[in-house]
Amino acid sequence: MMDFLRAYKNYDPAAKSYAEIFFLYPGPRAILCHRVAHVLYSAKFYFLARVVAEFSRWITGIEIHPGARLGRRLVIDHGLGLVIGETAEVGDDCILFHGVTLGGSKFDPVKRHPTVGNHVLIGTGAKVLGPLTIGDGAKIAANAVVVKDVPAGATVLGPLGVLKEQAPQEARS
Amino acid sequence: MMDFLRAYKNYDPAAKSYAEIFFLYPGPRAILCHRVAHVLYSAKFYFLARVVAEFSRWITGIEIHPGARLGRRLVIDHGLGLVIGETAEVGDDCILFHGVTLGGSKFDPVKRHPTVGNHVLIGTGAKVLGPLTIGDGAKIAANAVVVKDVPAGATVLGPLGVLKEQAPQEARS
Amino acid sequence: MMDFLRAYKNYDPAAKSYAEIFFLYPGPRAILCHRVAHVLYSAKFYFLARVVAEFSRWITGIEIHPGARLGRRLVIDHGLGLVIGETAEVGDDCILFHGVTLGGSKFDPVKRHPTVGNHVLIGTGAKVLGPLTIGDGAKIAANAVVVKDVPAGATVLGPLGVLKEQAPQEARS
User: Would you give per-residue pLDDT tens digits along chain B (173 residues)?
Assistant: First the structure.
């Protein structure tokens, strides 16, 4: 447990105390709720599991399906709009930002969500869709859309904004 | 009504029962609230309509302006961060994901939001902006930004992430 | 105060009355909460400041760190999923949409978030990351990712969706 709080404290320079993290951060709260929901889900109490998950979503703005498997020391930063699907798996020591989706792209009932390795960082707004694999240590940039496997250690670049040319006539001459 | 729940059940392989959908899914709840808000809005009870919409937003994380017109059997999946503007229109049998915006791009008070046809799928994080038309059966990919008309049956691709080259020196040699 | 409400009224053609804006819009509520949180933060009541910010996040879906400095007549539209970091600064008369992030990209404890000038518009889903500067009057398009300084008056274009070719065989012939 302290292990888990320490992961947050090390990670976030804006965190002033453990109490702040424990009582006021939405990420740890969502993960604790998910641990409960996942136990219920594994025992096939699907409805009850979903009640817990839905309560957590209302409190935190983070939506994790009770069936998802999350590794240790996961840091969810800000978290609003994060969606993790039923058959998604996330390794240890990952960092997920708000607006990330680990979602499905086809309607295959068996395995339709991503498998994420250890030490992976996924930037805000990135969407990882389908039963693909993100290798250990990979980094995915903000707002990137990923629909293929990502090798270990790789960096996926997202859509950087480009300056509209101020004087297009110069470009022509 | 059953029609509406059936649309969800057929669509979502993670749904275990109708009870789960009815009581625990944010999408159906937001749409039911919107039906009430829209009736109030049409009767020019603007303030009251907005009270209902704001309550729904707080409960579901889905923001639908009371003035928007939504078709039948609409599926809103996950829904957090979805925004539908006042003059938007959505046809029948559409699927909208979380983080989608049907918004305005100019400040024209009359019609400033999109008109979406039937059987349209709009992926998570996509922004459809302005008084444009999305044709029947079109699909819009995750995180895509759409500011022009989309013909019926078309697919709009979004910004796929690209792998940063691991060894840029090889590219130069 | 009226100044502030007037900014909203002028901006939003869907707003029917001042009462609607004051009682029912999430943007003004989040900004009022932030004013309180920022006073507490400046007096080094970090825990209490964070309580106010977290309450505001739960009520509005807008997450503004108590340390952030916001200018006058700021309009936050819709707001769900908006994140503003601890060392971010925003000038006067700006408009920020839902899903915008003014975030950090490195773990520098001193200044790691953006400085935004006056009269800046940042479109929905745009992510502005790092201790960069956005010049006065700049406009940033929906879903754009910005990691470099933006000069005053500039427009940053985002990732527009592209139509998938309907008949690729024609392109080959």
Answer: 677 778 777 777 777 777 788 778 899 999 999 999 999 999 999 999 999 999 999 999 999 999 999 999 999 999 999 999 999 999 999 999 999 999 998 766 678 999 999 999 999 999 999 999 999 999 999 999 999 999 999 999 988 888 887 544 433 33
Are residues B129 and B85 in contact, defined by beta-carbon separation less than 8 angstroms? Answer: no
Mutation pick from C48, C101, C134, C157 vs chain A, by most beta carbons of A within 10 Å, is C101
Give the one of A78, A141, A159 whose C-beta lies nearest to C63's C-beta: A78
| Structure token digits, residue C18 | 């001042």
- Residue identified by tokens 């039911």 is B32
ipTM score assigned to the predicted complex: 0.87
Tokens of C97: 């949409």
Q: Subunits that touch chain B (at least 3 Cβ pairs < 8 angstroms)?
A: A, C
Contacts of B99 in chain C (CB under 8 A): 81, 99, 125
CB A80 within 8 A of CB C56: no
Say if CB A157 and CB A139 are below 8 A apart. no
Give the residue numbers in B contacting C (CB under 8 Å), as ranges: 46-47, 50-51, 54, 57-58, 61, 63, 65, 67, 80-81, 83, 85-86, 99, 101, 103, 107-109, 112, 125-127, 129, 140-141, 143-147, 150-151, 153-159
DSSP C150: B
- B66 contacts: CB under 8 Å, gap ≥ 6: B34, B37, B38, B40, B41, B46, B49, B50, B52, B53, B86
- Closest-CA residue of chain C to B79: C80
Q: What is the pTM of this model?
A: 0.90
A156 → closest Cβ in B11, B142, B161: B161
Q: What is the 3-state secondary structure (H, E, C) of A35-83?
A: HHHHHHHHCCCHHHHHHHHHHHHHHHCCEECCCCEECCCCEEECCCCCE
- Which run of H or of E encompasses C64? strand C63-64
Angle made by CA atoms B5, B11, B17, in degrees to the nearest 5? 50
Of A20, A24, A99, the CB nearest to C99: A99
The candidate with the shortest Cα–Cα distance to C70, out of C82, C59, C58, is C82
Question: What are the pLDDT digits (tens) for A82-97?
Answer: 999 999 999 999 999 9
Residues of A near B (CB-CB distance < 8 A)? 46-47, 50-51, 54, 57-58, 61, 63, 65, 67, 80-81, 83, 85-86, 99, 101, 103, 107-109, 112, 125-127, 129, 140-141, 143-147, 150-151, 153-159
In residues, how long is chain C?
173
3-state secondary structure of B29: helix
Distance CA A95, CA A106 (A): 26
CA–CA gap between residue A55 and residue B59 (Å, rounded): 10
